[in-house]
């Protein structure tokens, strides 16, 4: 894909890079602890098919929680909102993404939204397929279509690393199972979920997926309506209310665009009808968001009046 290097974007990336030393890489997943703290790259994919970039945008990283938006879109297409939201709520949470507390205290066993781990695990358990391989294959095909890139794969090393360390996620699954919210076999879902989080791509791919959401589910290159409009709208709303973990409110005020982050340092954002943006900066703040990625979006939002509010 032809993506022009852009001096203006490079300037903002250089400015944002100055805060990387205030964060740190996600060390609780051993495979992510190896990432370089001062990396930062960004690609902006416009809905007319043009693209600008800055930094090493070819560098691959795993989606982690960004995948939650994509699995949600697929499961909503498969089952419809009514069925999905019978099992998962639609409310933001002020708690960290891996917190278990609200499962006990609010509507026992039903997770508050699909962007926290508990909700995302329920969503993943609803992906259609006979076997685990069928399910992850189906999600991967969907994501390849969104990025219009057949070479996207799962990083086996990261998936294995996460599978071996995901004890809190397993605990949440068993707790929800006790309340009848979670119906699948826990280890099967953990297998699919850790592979889902380990789907690997670069900033260009991510920006292009963002542009599909910017066009309400229509692909800017192929013209295909991959996600129905209403489902794209639901996903974008969750990105605004819950996409940046428990920093979503502040993010909405300061930056004001639909976005979703992952602990590998990726952020997918979008400006409706204008562009998708893919950012990779592994140094994280205390909420688990890319510290330089958020700074970059602050600079871009302020300079180009991106807020949707």
Q: Could you please describe the fold and organization of this structure?
A:
Keywords: Acetylation, Hydrolase. Belongs to the glutaminase family. It holds the Pfam family Glutaminase. Homotetramer. The chain has 309 residues and is an alpha+beta fold. Helix 2 (67-79) packs across helix 3 and helix 7 (156-165) packs across helix 9 (186-197). A six-stranded mixed beta sheet has the order 1-3-2-9-8-7. A three-stranded antiparallel beta sheet has the order 4-6-5. It folds into two domains: 2-61 and 200-302, Beta-lactamase; 64-196, Probable Glutaminase Ybgj, Chain: A, domain 2. The model has no long low-confidence stretch (mean pLDDT 95). It has 13 helices and nine strands.
Order of strands side by side in the largest beta sheet?
1-3-2-9-8-7
CATH architecture of the largest domain: 3-Layer(aba) Sandwich
List SSEs in N-to-C order: EHEEEHHHHHEHHHEHHHEEEH
Q: How many extended strands?
A: 9
Rg, nearest Å: 18 Å
CATH superfamily of the largest domain: DD-peptidase/beta-lactamase superfamily
Q: What is the residue-averaged pLDDT?
A: 95
**Low-confidence segments:** none
Number of domains: 2
Give the termini separation: 32 Å
Derived from helix and strand composition plus strand pairing, the structural class reads alpha+beta
Portion of residues in helices? 40-55%
CATH third-level topology of the largest domain? Beta-lactamase
The major sheet is characterized as: 6 strands, mixed
The helix count comes to: 13
Percentage of residues in DSSP E strands: 5-15%
**What is the CATH first-level class name of the largest domain?**
Alpha Beta
Q: How would the global form be characterised?
A: globular
EC number: 3.5.1.2
Protein name: Glutaminase
Keywords: Acetylation, Hydrolase
InterPro entries: Beta-lactam/transpept-like, Glutaminase
């Amino acid at each position: 894909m032809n993506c022009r290097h852009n001096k203006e974007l490079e300037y903002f990336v250089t400015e944002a890079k100055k805060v990387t030393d205030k964060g740190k890489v996600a060390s609780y997943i051993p495979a992510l602890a190896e990432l370089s703290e001062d990396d930062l790259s960004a690609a902006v994919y416009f809905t007319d098919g043009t693209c600008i970039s800055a930094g090493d945008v070819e560098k691959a990283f795993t989606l982690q929680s960004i995948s939650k938006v994509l699995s949600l879109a697929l499961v909503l297409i498969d089952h419809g909102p009514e069925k999905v939201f019978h099992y998962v709520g639609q409310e933001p949470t002020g708690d960290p993404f891996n917190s278990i507390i609200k499962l006990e205290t609010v509507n026992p066993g039903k997770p508050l939204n699909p962007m926290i781990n508990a909700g995302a695990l329920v969503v993943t358990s609803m992906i259609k397929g006979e076997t685990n391989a069928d399910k992850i294959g189906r999600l991967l095909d969907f994501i390849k279509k969104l990025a219009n890139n057949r070479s996207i794969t799962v990083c086996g090393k990261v998936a294995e690393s996460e599978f071996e360390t995901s004890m809190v996620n397993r605990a949440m699954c068993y707790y929800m199972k006790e309340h009848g919210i979670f119906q699948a076999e826990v280890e099967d879902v953990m297998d699919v979920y850790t592979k889902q989080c380990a789907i690997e791509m670069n900033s260009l791919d991510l920006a292009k997926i963002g542009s599909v959401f910017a066009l309400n589910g229509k692909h800017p290159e192929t013209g295909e309506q991959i996600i129905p409009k209403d489902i794209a709208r639901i996903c974008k709303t969750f990105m605004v209310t819950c996409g940046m973990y428990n920093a979503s409110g502040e993010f909405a005020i300061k930056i004001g665009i639909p976005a979703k982050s992952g602990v590998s340092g990726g952020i997918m954002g979008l400006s409706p009808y204008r562009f998708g943006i893919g950012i990779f900066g592994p140094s994280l703040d205390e909420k688990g968001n890319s510290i330089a990625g958020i700074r970059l979006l602050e600079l871009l939002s302020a300079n180009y009046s991106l807020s949707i509010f």
